[in-house]
């Protein structure tokens, strides 16, 4: 009974203390809220544009589903790292004519793989909402083009050599056709025609073999190339992500109220 009376007395003392200093509590709360509101209003608003990228891994033969899944996730992690490297960022700056340098642009970009998927989420922050969306979309475009060029370079030499052989054989076929067309009807011409037509058949067969090799190289290139697909393009944001004026104001008022309350109890404890 005595403990209950003591608690009630303490509570009454605290309530009287708060009632006596309520003006201070309200004043500090309002001042903190007003300060946070003014700071938020004067802060440059930052907009965020978001785009989603799908990594379409090249089909691999003789691999299990689990191995393919692990490989896809690792590839997604790798691509997420490569998207903010200097070659890609320089391409974005040059394409859009940005006044930012590579370091500033890198700080504005956040690339995060989506867990347990082959999706990558790209977020770009900028004071200009239209520019934020343009950077996000151009980043995907530049990375996709550079990735495709990088992977195609592995087959470029073989394709160039085969294309050169195709051009040479095509020229040889055309030359032989011209020779056959210019022959007459004499016995010597007939013999020469038979010889040239035999050569022509051999040239055409060789051309077909080279063309088949060229198509096989192209097929191997297609099967070993991982594509980057923009699943969801970035749109121009209509609301800033920073500052959050209402949230900042509310938090500042709560903090101000807590500090003022603590100060009141501290002054009462020190008052002898």
List the main descriptive attributes of the protein structure presented here.
11% strand; 8 helices; 272 residues; single chain; four-stranded antiparallel β-sheet; alpha+beta; 71% helix
How would the blueprint of this fold be written?
Elements: H1 2-20, H2 22-42, E1 47-56, H3 65-82, H4 86-96, H5 102-108, E2 109-113, E3 119-126, H6 129-181, H7 187-223, E4 227-232, H8 245-270
Antiparallel strand pairs: 1-3, 1-4, 2-3
Helix pairs in contact: 2-8, 4-6, 6-7
Description:
This protein is α+β, with helices and mostly antiparallel strands. 71% of the residues lie in helices and 11% in strands. The protein contains eight helices and four strands, in the order H-H-E-H-H-H-E-E-H-H-E-H. The chain has a four-stranded antiparallel beta sheet. It starts with a helix and ends with a helix. The model has no long low-confidence stretch (mean pLDDT 82).
Query: What is the string of SSEs from the N terminus onward?
Result: HHEHHHEEHHEH
Put simply, the count of helices is 8
- The strand count comes to 4
Distance between the termini: 29 Å
Oligomer: single chain
Strand order of the largest sheet: 2-3-1-4
How would you summarize this macromolecular structure in one to three sentences?
This protein has helices at residues 2-20, 22-42, 65-82, 86-96, 102-108, 129-181, 187-223, 245-270, and strands at residues 47-56, 109-113, 119-126, 227-232.
